[in-house]
Design a protein that fits this description.
alpha+beta; Nucleotidyltransferase, domain 5; seven-stranded mixed sheet; UvrC_RNase_H_dom_sf; SOS response
């Protein structure tokens, strides 16, 4: 699809090596940054490529200049996945488009064409089993299927489990006795002239031996497809009429069989409970997320009944709120569904009439227009406000939250995986013993202000949150990340030496640690820093790891191993080693180190935000008459910062709930210093 607009891109930059082996230099984003004036302030779609020309990320923007410039900010302030993407890329180009619909279409087409490694693909895969009907064959077959869509096959689902499909088939085959055997079994029974067991118990019409012809068998399959497609009431009424007719004709055996068939249909329908009484066709979408990942759940409702459910857990490439997650999901998922329906000749609509979401995306009108084109009729995107749809949306949200929790705990809760992870770390890093206690340090700040650090603890591969610690970094203006790491390590292990009585120069200076070092004699509980880790992980590469090792050597701590985990290629750096240790991407040990690092990052970010928020709410606003903590918080939530609040007018502040002209004037007076914040006594 050709879209209007023109290609604008920077000439190919000088090659900057993307690491293909440990130690090779990473690309510097500044080396391929386009001149700011060359980027148009227009809507468009952009793509990042590596030095080999492979597209690694595709995105769209209302303002290309503003969006692209955000990628070339200070690397330390970027989202971890964004930082990894821009340091892997070596080239960026863009295409200007005329409308938001064109941007959506081009973005999806590029993602589909290039399959960028940093873009999320909501594609169906073997995770979700479906019920496949091979309508393209002379004798269609019903079977459980996982894999890519094919032409001549209709698909129903997806189902959460394969056993759910088999259970549904077992109920329905007595009513719709269609073929379920493979091609080999079908031919073999045709050759021997005897049906299989299902043919003997009337759960197959046995077309293999000619008990029914091809047309009759196809009619059975079509009735089966109609039932799964939602036309259930018509089939039930038809069977009830046949049962009444058989009873009137005194054919009680046939009437009893039809009665049992009706019961089987109703039991199958009960497994798909009515959730929307108006018979709505809709998809209900919900999200649960944190700073690094997001879980999405979708319930497919057809004819008012939940016909399928699926979910994904994805990595975030960029910071994204719920509205942005909704937009990206709708573009990726329904674009993929439309392509699958086209490639498989599936009669089912790839997009439902209605999509219920937790928040509306910014370009909801353009998105609805694009989805309507995919469907061929009007599609509505909305947030349910009340009634059954709101209740169902809350149920889907609970499922998303539960799936996200289970994802976080699945590997960590697996004893075998945790044992394997610790053994892989021991072998990979050459440790004497498996590191049963691992601590990780991360530093968080914004351009050197409000510098804080976190220390998180994992024992036996599980987080021990009671031992988490937070640090305020002293003399932050003079310290970089490496020096900040050194300060945290020094403070943490000085406390360890003091609490275990190993830090004093002579016995007279040793503190009273009781008969059990590390245990508080008054409370009987472990002291805060009394136990050292077997492994100390720092967020960073060789300089950070070496700084931590130097501090431990300075303090005389010799039984703690140190390593650094670099985000770029997930390399593990050991102090004094010129090359990193490379753990397999599928390694449980690497996954445990990543989870430890991400938890330290989350804990540090949370503390940093608390400090920054506390700093904004203090001082300048504290002396305003009638302005308590709740109102101060409301002001900062609305305007985002004290600087933006100073730039606001009295009328804008007074328009907020709970504020009036007098309070608004007092707030501005306190911030600008025009009049005293407090009235004179």
């Amino acid at each position: 699809m050709a879209l209007p607009g023109r290609d604008r891109s920077r000439p190919e930059p000088r090659p900057v090596g993307v690491p293909s082996y440990p130690g090779e230099a990473m690309p510097d984003p500044a080396s391929y940054r386009p001149a700011t004036g060359s980027i148009p302030e227009a809507p468009g779609v952009y793509r990042f490529s590596d030095v080999h020309g492979r597209v690694i990320y595709v995105g769209k923007a209302k303002n290309l200049r503003q969006r692209l410039n955000s990628y070339f900010a200070d690397l330390s302030g970027l989202h971890p996945r964004t930082r990894q993407m821009v340091t892997t890329a070596a080239h960026v180009e863009w295409t200007v488009v005329g409308t938001e619909v064109e941007a959506l279409q081009l973005e999806y087409n590029w993602i589909k064409e290039f399959d960028p490694r940093f873009n999320v693909r909501y594609r169906d895969d073997k995770t979700y089993p479906v019920l496949a009907v091979t309508v393209g064959e002379e004798y269609p077959r019903l079977h459980v299927y996982r894999g890519p869509r094919r032409k001549g096959v209709r698909y129903f689902g997806p189902y959460a489990h394969a056993w759910a499909i088999r259970e549904t088939l077992d109920l329905l085959l007595r009513v719709f006795p269609a073929r379920t055997c493979s091609a080999g079994v079908f031919r073999r029974h045709g050759q021997i002239g005897r049906p299989c067991l299902l043919g003997y118990i009337d759960k197959c019409s046995a077309p293999c031996i000619g008990r029914v012809d091809a047309q009759t068998h196809r009619e059975i399959v079509e009735d089966f497809c109609d039932f799964l497609a939602g036309r259930t009431d018509h089939l039930v009424r038809q069977l009830e009429r046949r049962m009444a007719q058989a009873s009137e004709n005194l054919d009680f055996e046939r009437a009893a069989r039809l009665r049992d068939d009706i019961g089987a249909l109703k039991r199958a329908m009960e497994k798909q409970a009515v959730v929307l009484g108006d018979g709505t066709d809709a998809d209900v979408v919900a999200f649960a997320d944190d700073e690094l990942e997001a879980a999405v759940q979708v319930f497919h409702v057809r004819g008012g009944r939940v016909r399928g459910q699926r979910g994904w857990v994805i990595d975030k490439v960029e910071p994204a709120d719920t509205a942005q997650l909704v937009e990206r999901f709708l573009v990726q998922f329904y674009g993929e569904q439309a392509a699958l329906a086209e490639s498989s000749d599936d009669a089912a609509q790839p997009v439902p009439r209605e999509i219920l979401v937790p928040e509306l995306p910014a370009e909801v009108d353009a998105l609805a227009e694009w989805l309507s084109e995919l469907r061929g009729s009007r599609v509505v995107i909305r947030v349910p406000q009340r009634g059954d749809k709101r209740a169902l949306a809350e149920t889907v949200a609970r499922n998303a939250a539960e799936a996200f929790t289970q994802h976080k705990l699945r590997r960590a809760g697996d004893l075998t995986a945790r044992s394997a992870a610790l053994q892989e770390i021991q072998d990979g890093l050459g440790l004497d013993t498996a590191p049963l206690r691992i601590e990780c340090i991360d530093v968080s700040h914004v351009q050197g202000t409000d510098v804080v650090a976190s220390l998180v603890v994992f024992e036996d591969g599980l987080a021990k949150k009671s031992d988490y610690r937070r640090f305020e970094i002293k003399d932050a203006a003079q310290l970089g990340d490496v020096a900040a790491i050194a300060e945290v390590v020094r403070r943490r292990f000085r406390r360890y030496l003091a609490e275990t009585g190993n830090g004093a120069a002579d016995a007279a200076e040793k503190p009273d640690v009781g008969s059990r070092p590390g245990i508080d004699p008054d409370t009987g509980r472990p002291r805060r820093f009394a136990y050292p880790p077997q492994l100390l992980v720092v967020d960073g590469a060789a300089p950070q790891a070496q700084a931590a090792a130097d501090v431990l050597a300075e303090l005389g701590v010799t039984d703690v191993a140190v390593c650094g985990l670099a985000k770029r290629l997930e390399e593990v750096w050991m102090p004094g080693e010129p090359d990193p240790v490379i753990l397999s991407r599928t390694s449980e040990g690497l996954y445990l180190l990543q989870r430890l690092r991400d938890e330290a990052h989350r804990f540090a970010i949370t503390y940093h935000r608390q400090r920054r928020s506390k700093g904004m709410t203090s001082s300048e606003l504290d002396g305003v008459p009638g302005l308590g903590p709740a109102r101060r918080g409301a002001l900062l939530r609305h305007f985002g910062s004290v600087r933006k609040l100073k730039a606001a007018g009295v009328d804008e502040i007074a328009a907020l709930p709970g504020f009036g002209p007098r309070t608004a004037a007092a707030v501005l007076a306190a911030l600008t210093g025009d009049v005293p914040a407090k009235e004179p006594t």
